């Protein structure tokens, strides 16, 4: 049983319900096509993480985006 966990930013940049559906369907189809996994037992979880909880290169993403 494959388990895939996708983490995305939450808040105003969170994916829509339609985008989440497309991600779930696409990942499930990819695992079936590439690894011959059964879609009926494939689990996909999407976690929305608040922007202030993301960091890259030692800096909070929210601060990095302000600098751009």
Explain what the structure shows.
This is Tautomerase. Its EC number is 5.3.2.-. It is an enzyme of class 5 (isomerase). The structure is a single chain. This protein is elongated. 38% of the residues lie in helices and 26% in strands. The strands form two sheets. Strands 1-2 form a two-stranded parallel sheet. It has a two-stranded antiparallel ribbon with strand order 3-4. The chain contains two helices and four strands; from the N terminus they run βαβββα. By secondary structure, the protein is of the alpha+beta class.
Provide a quick synopsis of the model:
The protein contains two helices and four strands; from the N terminus they run E-H-E-E-E-H.
Record the strand order, biggest sheet.
1-2
Please mark out the parts with pLDDT under 50 across 5 or more consecutive residues, or reply none. Answer: none
Mass-distribution shape: elongated
**Alpha-carbon distance between the termini?**
42 Å
Question: Would you tell me the overall average pLDDT?
Answer: 93
Order of helices and strands: EHEEEH
**Total of DSSP H or I helical runs spanning 4+ residues:** 2
Rg, Cα atoms, Å: 15 Å
Main sheet specs: 2 strands, parallel
Question: How big a fraction of the residues is strand?
Answer: 25-35%
What share of the residues lie within helices? 25-40%
The count of strands amounts to 4
Protein name: Tautomerase
Pfam family, one: Tautomerase
Domain 4-oxalocrotonate tautomerase-like: 2-61
Family: Belongs to the 4-oxalocrotonate tautomerase family.
